[in-house]
Amino acid sequence: MRYVSTRGGGKPQPFTEILLEGLAPDGGLFVPEEFPRLGAADLAAMRGMSYPQLAFAILSKLADIPAGDLKPLVAATYTEKIFGSEDITPVKELDRGLHLLGLSNGPSLAFKDIALQLLGNLFEYALGKHGRRVNVVGATSGDTGSSAEYALRGKKNVQVFMLSPQGRMSAFQAAQMYSLQDANIFNIAVRGVFDDCQDIVKAISGDFAFKARHRIGAVNSINWARIAAQVVYYFKAYFAVGGEVSFAVPSGNFGNVYAGHVARQMGLPIRKLIVATNENNVLDEFFRTGRYRVRGAAEVKATSSPSMDISKSSNFERYAYDLVGRDGAKLRALWDGLGREGTLDLSGTDSFRRVADTGFVSGSSTHADRLATIQRVWKDYGLMVDPHTADGIKVGLEHREQGVPLVCMETAQPAKFAETIREALGREPVRPAGFENLEKLPQRFEVMDADVGKIKHYIGSATSRSV
Ligand SMILES: *Cc1c(COP(=O)(O)O)cnc(C)c1O
Description:
six-stranded mixed sheet, five-stranded parallel sheet, globular, alpha/beta, binds pyridoxal-5'-phosphate, single chain, 45% helix
């Protein structure tokens, strides 16, 4: 399996070459040259596999890592000790045909751990093998940052520079990141919104001289290995439920639901991929109208499902590449236009008509919907769900079809968003063991302006000190 850029530039690359990369050199994102296809016999063989077995079976189709290396890496990642149960992503039936896929039982209590715990081990493996070091630069609206830091803390040959929007995360989220005392972790609290952080990371990724000099790598949601790792739990849920299923996915940067698209393209019988957004509904607007309208940073609303507060979805380009018939030149032309006008209009085109073939539908949720869903799930099923998960359930139920099991993704633990839980239920969320006094721990972070030059300077001096 080799990887090409969505914008058609460069030569196809093996997985191990793109593992440490964010953007492709031409500014596009890496996607498989073609999706590996699994037949009925492959699926039958996968049924009954444990999570690590399944992860190995799927990742070995996507990654050119020798089996003798990949197997132990996967086995060391997906353990009961790290994810709380042997199932790793347990499926709970709430009601007949209504399921919750538990993705948030890892160390940072959000679904991103599933991909990032693997990525941490893949990085350490690849760097050790080539005798290299990497400085990971990432942007987070809350959950990526803590997941990445928990995955990379203390790892050899890795330093992490994580940009987060100052004052835009929940107190719990901020404390999760800022309380880490590991010397290889650098938290940068940016005076701005998440998109400012993401733009700075993109600018750094686009400066090839800087990148090469400081050995910059990425773990943000455009990293292909993260997508690959997320494909696995779609298979796991499918086997747990049995038969064709639809998935409801709380979405922001489109990484989670795009992994579902990959699973579907690989042959997993998924009926619908239901994209749920919050008030920042750029994705919902696209699926309803064919118009993808990027918003300015000032237009991004700070909502009570903050990990989905985005103005544009970085992985959307990968999906759009499939919609335009995997034509890099066409995609590049569209994206060049997007840069100028801020809107990509596919309405009325064959590309937009392909959306139906890919099973995507969408909806959005408001703060009031979120509270009502948290209340309803609590009352009907005695279960506390976090605000993002609630957005997924709300939109999922709107698209539920008779006779088709619906799997809603639980993307975070309610403990991370206590304020909204208190507002909805008038009580405190349950805190998992080990997180009781999190906000009282000493914090370590640097406050900086949303200024690429200053942040580059900071990273540059920290990385030179460490050599
Ligand atoms: C990151 C995140 C999302 C959005 O996932 P994307 O892959 O960016 O679409 C949803 N919910 C939670 C809790 C998250 O942390």
